[in-house]
Amino acid sequence: MTEFETTIVNVGHDGRGVARIDGKAVFVAGALAGETVRLRMRKRHRNYDEAEVAEIITRSPERTEPRCIHVAACSGCSLQHMQPAAQIAMKQQVLADNFQRIGKVEPAQWLSPLTDEAWGYRRKGRLSVRHVAKKERVLVGFREESNPRFVADIQRCEVIHPALGPKVGLLAELVSGMDAARHIAQIEFAAGDADVALVFRHLSPLSERDRDALVAFAKEHGFAIYLQPSGVSSVHALWPEGHQLSFGIPGQDVDMAFEPLDFVQVNAGMNRRMIERTLELMAPEPHHRVLDLFCGLGNFTLPIARHVAQVTGVEGEHGLVQRAAANATRNGIGNARFEVANLFEDQRATAWAQADYDTVLLDPPRAGADKVLEYLPRASTRRVVYVSCHPGSLARDAGILVNQHGFRLSSAGVMDMFPHTAHVESIALFER
Fold first, then answer.
1. Phi, psi (5° rounding) for residue 29?
2. DSSP 8-state code for residue 82
3. How far is the C-alpha of 92 from the C-alpha of 110, rounded, in Å?
4. What is the CATH number of the domain that holds 104?
5. What is the pTM for the complete model shown?
6. How do residues 360-379 score in pLDDT, each as one tens digit?
7. C-alpha dist (Å) from residue 329 to 302, 324, 393
8. Given 74, 77, 295, 389, which residue is catalytic?
9. Which among 98, 15, 102, 92 has a CA at the least distance from the CA of 416?
10. How many domains are contained in the chain?
């Protein structure tokens, strides 16, 4: 396999080091800017190549030793070799680059980055399951870093919720002993404040022996067990019967009930900090009316309702809207209402879109909110707070808000929702 000695000139937006060999960009997994490395070519493409580090000759001062013993095999965390402060600085630079390159805008003020616990933070995720006949065993984990078609053979995970992270290997042992070992496709996990739920996606009916084994495992380790024999609607609790996940939002007097496959923010500590910053940027007044778009379960909607006259949450998934309304009732909140609407389609004729709002909150998926921004916000809106999981779509939409709607980008900053990954979560405030 061909090896080269070269210097890493910078770090790309996906966290890989970037070198240039004979004028061609080479993306090097596990390398940091300024390092001299011996790299091993992995894949060649027309416009770029991919490589891995064979040897570090000169180390960057930003390099640190990864905590996870599986970091070389698992694709879950691509930046464990970079010091946390350097990770944050890289993400802030990614956001700034996107604003400048795509949106042609720059915030008047950079917000201090939001950080929380860097380990054991992940309360939601999906573990792949693969029965390997040649090894006569089952693998449970995330995908391999070098080959995403395969499941990494891991025993523990340092970023998963501490009730589950050290026990990933035990899940593999559990499934290996089941009659349905070849028919378990994945295990999703979701942690509330009280416990962790495991959802077993099985492609064939489970025997009574398998069901007993799952219940025994749950009782021994303190998990709740759900089964998913087909689509999302088929998910049901195996043990304990009638189980309910929930998490509180401290300081806002809100407790959120949710189902194990519902979208909730992966990082519980960062979610609390994000809500606090959102409220700070919104500067809500008791007479304000607020529109919360892509509201999901009401993660922002219900805390906002504690501070304003009325808040309207809009979400495309009917089940989430139902549970958001139920959470409002659960918390005794009467000034929040919810609408079901596909926000990637034109909704300007709806009553909620024609109403006046002092503030609009946007929390869209990766695709962003450009379709909504064709007709919102209306002239009455003085502030827009935008929570983003993709810096490119935020930058594009920032250009729309500034250049087409007459706002200015007052402030922006990153939030480290996914430590040790290249994922960039951010928040921005736009004012008239």
1. -65, 135
2. B
3. 9
4. 3.40.50.150
5. 0.95
6. 999 999 999 999 999 999 99
7. 10, 9, 34
8. 389
9. 92
10. 3
